[in-house]
Specification:
By secondary structure, the protein is an alpha+beta fold. 46% of the residues lie in helices and 25% in strands. The strands form four sheets. Strands 8-9-10-13-14 form a five-stranded antiparallel sheet. It has a four-stranded antiparallel sheet with strand order 3-2-5-6, with no helix packed on it. It has a three-stranded mixed sheet with strand order 4-1-7, with no helix packed on it. A hairpin with a 6-residue loop joins strand 13 and strand 14. Helix 1 packs antiparallel against helix 2 and helix 3 packs parallel to helix 5.
């Protein structure tokens, strides 16, 4: 609201008075007959800017209140009630001043409030509007409905909350950029992240995934299959040697030895290739998954004991 409760223009020109009167009457017509509240507000503001009177301020405040802008309506009612009293003030102006003060007091109890708390550093925004740090000491008036509270650090959004408020309701909202800050802790496996919480606690997030396990199974399958070729080839050599040791129905002394070695290397090949097949089936059958194991720790109020909670 850009209206001002400055001194009345004692030497307002006749042209300004006429323009203000025309805008005021048009605002009444737009609101009461055409039900165009937004256009009516624009006309009332124009009239007030030309000639600020309690009557114009009162009608502007009524219109804003009808639109649901309780905060804007109260601000206008306060300004209208605080306008300097003129010696020649009409009864209508006096009534508007009194009504404006009463409406401002009535809205004071209806307007919701947010008490903002900042933990650490950062800039708090409410519905996109920056809130000065020195203004955090008092509750912030907002209209009923949903509001978005953000905390930013150097233009980056570090946290966001959606707050729903009803008429006359007050809520405390604590914002901390540290709640979103993550410190990565070096670990062999798995990845661990430590997240500070607003209540001075900590949340440990451990990411787990079987993607590496599946890749390892494929690698093991290929390796075992490749290694299994070696005893297989050796087994074939001893089979050939056993065949050469026989001439018809007669076999020399090397036959039994070659046969035994061929059998042994053949078993080794079967074991290695069987293991490769098992690894391959396991890699194909196990579904890929990933997720977080979250363990939190926060101080118990009134003591130094810590409690733990988790999600697996």
């Amino acid at each position: 609201m850009t209206l001002s409760a400055g001194a009345w223009a004692q030497d307002a020109s006749a042209a300004d008075v006429e323009r203000a009167r025309a805008a005021f009457l048009q605002g009444l017509d737009l609101r009461d007959n055409k039900h165009d509240l937004a256009a009516a507000v624009a006309q009332f503001k124009a009239a007030y800017a030309l000639i600020p009177t309690p009557r114009i301020g009162y009608e502007l405040g009524r219109t804003l209140r009808s639109m649901g802008d309780l905060v804007g309506a109260r601000a206008v009612f306060v300004l209208a009630a605080q306008l300097p009293v003129r010696a020649t003030e009409s009864a209508e102006a006096k009534k508007a001043r009194t009504e404006s003060e009463a409406q401002a007091n009535e809205l004071e109890a209806r307007i919701p409030q947010i008490m903002l708390h900042l933990v650490g550093s950062g800039q708090i925004f409410v519905d996109g509007e920056a809130v000065r740090h020195d203004a955090l000491a008092t509750p912030r008036r907002v209209n009923p409905g949903s509001h978005v509270v953000q905390i930013q650090v150097e233009g980056d959004v570090k946290g966001e909350q959606s707050v729903m408020l009803r008429e006359g309701e007050r809520k405390d909202v604590t914002m901390s950029a540290g709640a979103e800050a993550r410190v990565t802790v070096t670990a062999a496996a798995p990845e661990v992240q430590v997240v500070p919480l607003p209540n001075n606690g900590y949340q440990f997030q451990v990411r787990r995934s079987n993607a590496g396990t599946k890749a390892g199974l494929f690698y093991a399958s290929a390796t075992l299959a490749g290694v299994g070729l070696v005893p297989g080839l050796i087994a074939l050599i001893y089979v050939k040697a056993a065949q050469n040791a026989c001439n018809g129905s007669t076999c020399d002394a090397s036959f039994d030895n070659n046969k035994t070695l061929a059998y042994g290397f053949g078993i080794a090949t079967d074991v290695l290739w069987g293991s490769a097949i098992i690894c391959l089936i396991a890699a194909l059958a196990v579904p890929t998954y990933s997720g977080d194991v979250i363990i939190g720790a926060s101080p118990v109020p009134g003591g130094g004991i810590f409690t733990a909670h988790g999600r697996f």
